[in-house]
Amino acid sequence: MTDPSFHCKWSNKYFPHCNCVCLSEGHPYVEIIEQPKARGMRFSYKCEGRSAGSIPGEKSNDTTKTHPAIKVSVQATPTRAGGQRLQTRIL
Q: How much is the pTM?
């Protein structure tokens, strides 16, 4: 069930071409925390005989290695104080 009063803060910023309908309480949504590095590594097929390694994140540098990350959240039911409580997990 959609709630027209629920404003999706992500659709316009990250997906301007998308006509998203955000769902209200109890529905999961994904937020991209870190994108893959644009030209971080060339990936190969297994039959080529060498490992390609991990996917570097856009904030990776020579001293600090980061990886792409997303945050999966579920908007929970309102708390007694009337606010919204979010359950999140960063992957």
A: 0.47
